[in-house]
Design a protein that fits this description.
230 residues; alpha/beta; Rossmann fold; 10 helices; 55% helix; globular; binds 2'-deoxyguanosine-5'-triphosphate
Length: 230
Amino acid sequence: ILSYKVLAQRSYHKMANTKPFTVFVEGNIGSGKTTFLEHFRQFEDITLLTEPVEEWRNLRGWNLLDLMYKDPSKWAMAFQAYVSLTMLDMHRRPTTTPVKLMERSIYSARYCFVEHMQRSGILHPAQFAVLDEWFRFIHTEIPIEADLIVYLKTDPKIAYERIKRRARSEEQCVPLSYLEELHKLHEDWLVNRTFAECPAPVLVIDADLDLSQITEEYKKTEHQILRKAV
Ligand code: DGT
């Protein structure tokens, strides 16, 4: 039934010629993904889908993000299962605009976060196997549109400073070493291509610059993102 619905949606897009140019914005925690998305708010004809962090902080009153950071071995599995669901919801959300800009994707959840949890032993191999089977099923059975990946490449030390400054309560215990691991996994996935699936061409942005200069860097991507709209 799921596949039928997705296929029906896709053929609607095809008939109406409305298949959006779909861009994933990827990068470490604190790399500036939200700021990047906000930059594109000024343009019409773009659907912006910011990451559902608020849903992770309040699932029927439960803060899964907080539970995961406080007791990863106990909560990683539940957290990642819910991340997958909310990401899939974003991937499948129909748009009426020619461009769809999404914060992260089901791929970074798998290749960066779940991968880290598996390698560090936070996830039991059996838990990892369940999450990986879900990922494979979704990847092969459900069409996920991807035309471009914008990778906000950041020095982990800079990401660390930004996280400290923004002081999101759940992230206070995040050590620099965690950001270094996540950075390596983003590099492996998007630059070194050590994982099988890199679903679209990658545009690498120097996201180390501070806010006053980064707008210029963002502007350089406008052409690639917006030209597909016309
Ligand atoms: P930005 O705008 O680049 O600073 O992005 P953030 O930090 O607002 O967004 P993101 O996705 O890097 O991280 C939000 C929080 O959720 C952060 O504490 C890391 C966590 N997070 C995001 N996706 C996953 C995931 O798949 N697994 C785990 N364990 N944590 C995740």
